[in-house]
Write a structure and sequence with these properties.
about 10% strand, Arc Repressor Mutant, subunit A, DNA-binding, about 60% helix, about 140 residues, 7 helices, homodimer, mainly alpha, three-stranded antiparallel sheet
DNA sequence: TATATTTGCATCGTGAACGATATAAATTAA
DNA sequence: TTAATTTATATCGTTCACGATGCAAATATA
C-alpha cells in the first residue's frame, strides 16, 4: 500500500502519542494536588504573570477562550483562581491567583525535573533537547502563521 | 522565578501544542468526509490490516479500549466499519472495514502530502525529519516501558 | 471438573478541545 | 450621537481521553 498512508510515517501521530504519553507522566503527580495537566499549564501562565484577562491566558496556551473559560471556572470552583470583570474594560474577565493557587508553585517545583528524567533516553539528552525544542517551536510558529 | 517552571521550558507543552495545531490542519480535510482525526487514525490501522480485534487497534494507537470502543461504535454508525464477535474467542470484537471505509483510502490519499507541506520550515525539512521521528519514537518507546 | 484468575470489551463520569452561536461592552463609522 | 462593527467572553453540542468499574468468555489452578 502507499507508504504515505502508513501510520508509521505520520508526524502528527507521533506528536499526538508523545504528547499523550508524556501527559500521563504528569497526571499522577498533579492529581495529588487535584490538578489536571491543562490546569497546571494555566497555573504556570499565572505564576509568570498574575491578573491576566482570559484572552491573554488563552493566547499563551494557543487555545481558544471556549476551552479556557470552562477550565478557569473549574479552577475557580477549586479555589485556585478568582474571576472578576475588569473595571477598565467591562468585557474582560481578569483571572487572579488565590493564595492556594499561588502556593502550589513551590509545592509543584519538583515536577519538571521528575518529568524531565522520565524522557531522557538515547537520542533525547540535555545536549539534543535544544534542537528538538527548536523544531517543535518552528512547527508551532509555522502552523500559527 | 524558577526557570524550570516556565512554560517555555516544557517539552510536554510543545508536544501538546504542536500536536493540537497539526491536528487542526487535518480537521478541515477530514471533515469533508465526515471524519475526525482519531477516526482517520483508526482507518489507517485497518487499511494496513483489516479484520482486527479492538485490542489490537487500541495497541497500534497507544490507546485504551475504553477510548477506542466508543470511537469504533461511532464509525460503525457512520457505516465505515462493522463490529462482530469473534467465533474463535467470544470475548473479542472483530472490526472490519466496509466498502465505504475501504474506499476512503484512495479519496484521502492526498492528505499526507498536503499536511506535510504545511509543516515544512527552516528546521523541519525532508533531511531533518528522520532525526525528529527518531527522537519522538524514542520518547514514545521510553514512556511505554 | 469445580474454582480462581486473567483477558477482552463495554459502560460511566469527568475534563478537556473545538466548531458554532450568543451577548454585551467597546470602538468605529456614518 | 446613533448605527454598524469589532472585541472579549460565555454557552452549547459533539468527540475524544482516561480512570474506575462491570461482566462474560477464556484460561489456569486446585
Amino acid at each position: 500500500m502507499e507508504e504515505n498512508l502508513k501510520l508509521d510515517n505520520q508526524l502528527c501521530f507521533r506528536l499526538y502519542t508523545a504528547s499523550r504519553l508524556l501527559t500521563q507522566v504528569y497526571n499522577p503527580l498533579l492529581s495529588e494536588y487535584g490538578l489536571t495537566y491543562p490546569q497546571y499549564l494555566a497555573l504556570m501562565v499565572l505564576w509568570e504573570k498574575d491578573a491576566m484577562p482570559v484572552n491573554d491566558i488563552a493566547k499563551k496556551l494557543f487555545l481558544e477562550t471556549n476551552t479556557v473559560t470552562p477550565l478557569l471556572k473549574r479552577m475557580e470552583a477549586e479555589g485556585l483562581v478568582t474571576r472578576d470583570k475588569s473595571s477598565n474594560d467591562g468585557r474582560q474577565t481578569i483571572v487572579r491567583l488565590t493564595q492556594k493557587g499561588y502556593s502550589l508553585r513551590e509545592k509543584l517545583s519538583f515536577v519538571p525535573d521528575k518529568v524531565g528524567s522520565a524522557v531522557i533516553c538515547e537520542t533525547v539528552t540535555p545536549e539534543t533537547v535544544p534542537a528538538l525544542f527548536k523544531m517543535l517551536d518552528d512547527i508551532i510558529l509555522r502552523l500559527k502563521a
